[in-house]
Design goal:
Layout lengths: L4 H11 L1 E3 L6 E3 L4 E6 L7 H15 L3 E6 L4 H9 L5 E5 H9 L12 E17 L14 E3 L6 H12 L9 E3 L3 H10 L4 E6 L4 H10 L3 E3 L4 H10 L4 E5 L11 E14 L4 H13 L1 H7 L23 H9 L4
Parallel strand pairs: 3-4, 3-5, 7-8, 7-9
Antiparallel strand pairs: 1-2, 5-12, 6-9, 6-10, 6-12, 11-12
Length: 329
């Protein structure tokens, strides 16, 4: 059999597109490009999860070279999307909503240069301290130094909201410190802060480290139940959560009374439809690989694909097309 130059050209052209459903539905294959994925500080759960996502995407679409970026977390990520310094980002549903609508930390300065791809795991409230600090409730934080996570992380705003709901005003009744996950744990050990607030997945590396070496002295504290009830009415994109028993050494029982928000993957407006279609497809159709690379990958499934995005922020056209083709949207 002789393959002519014309036939070779036809094969090459057909390889440049992939079918996406109906008989006439086609999307151009993504062009070769470098993409940056904003995650969080070292020691948090988002950085290794983002690295796992990058690996899966690049393995199945080698033309998409995805690199993960260490950042201050969700608010920092959204501002990086605003300045177009990154292409993809992990965010929380509440801050994505706030950014797009110019509320909260983005009051009067909305970020509209991004759209949603897929939703995934829940991240939950972690307030922890050491027994030597004699802190057993949020009320005991009066006069104390509290780490709220790295500057720009979701813990900054949520920590302030929750403590103020308990009658503790920032810089008046307590002093904030803005330390990444690992630095916050180190400061707690050294006595430079009295407590640490992280809004993160469970387990998360920095807390696993401290509980592995000093589990008997680590104390987790949740909001007062009545205060939490009021907060959930005020912030409907927050959800009740349980800190599962066994995820941290020495803490074998479930700790109810926590809350959290969904984590989502978003893309900046410079990322084209073919690219976001491919990213969505790669992550959802290779979920086992993602799970093997990072435990949180277990929650990035077809069942959670629209969580935190649907009804909150718009989907990117490429992601929306894939989700509709698969009957997920």
């Amino acid at each position: 059999m002789v393959i002519t130059r014309r036939a070779i050209g036809a094969l090459a052209a057909s390889a440049a597109i992939f079918k996406t459903g109906g008989a006439n539905a086609q999307v151009a294959a993504p062009r070769r490009q470098f993409l940056s994925l904003a995650t969080s500080s070292v020691g948090g759960s988002w950085y290794p999860l983002g690295s796992a996502m990058a690996t899966v995407i690049t393995r199945h679409y080698p033309m998409l070279n995805v690199n993960t970026e260490v950042t201050g977390g969700t608010n920092d990520n959204l501002n990086l999307l605003r300045s177009r310094r990154v292409d993809l980002a992990l965010s929380t549903t509440d801050q994505a909503f706030m950014a797009m609508n110019g509320r909260g930390a983005f009051q009067g300065n909305p970020v509209t240069s991004f759209q949603g791809l897929i939703g995934g795991h829940m991240i939950i409230w972690h307030l922890y301290t050491l027994r030597r600090n004699n802190i057993t409730s949020i009320a005991d934080l009066r006069g104390k130094r509290v780490s709220l996570g790295g500057a720009g992380s979701i813990g900054n705003e949520i920590g302030q909201i929750v403590l103020e709901a308990h009658g503790l005003k920032m810089n008046q009744d307590w002093r904030p410190e803005y330390l990444g996950h690992a630095d916050g744990t180190g400061a707690l050990k050294d006595g430079r802060v009295h407590a640490v607030i992280n809004i993160t997945a469970a387990p998360t590396g920095a807390i696993t480290d401290i509980t592995s070496t000093d589990s008997a002295n680590v104390v987790f504290i949740n909001p007062d139940p009545n205060v939490l009830d009021r907060l959930l009415e005020q912030y409907p994109y927050w959800s009740r959560a349980v800190l599962p028993g066994g995820v941290y050494r020495g803490h074998d029982r479930d700790l109810p009374g926590s809350f959290g928000v969904a984590t989502i993957l978003v893309a900046g407006d410079r990322v084209d439809e073919a690219t976001t279609y491919a990213i969505t497809k790669a992550l959802l159709e290779n979920q086992r690989e993602l799970s093997a690379a990072h435990a949180l990958g277990r929650e990035w499934t077809t069942e959670t694909a629209t969580r935190g995005i649907k009804g909150v922020i718009p989907f990117h056209p490429g992601a929306e097309r894939y989700l509709k083709e698969k009957g997920l949207l």
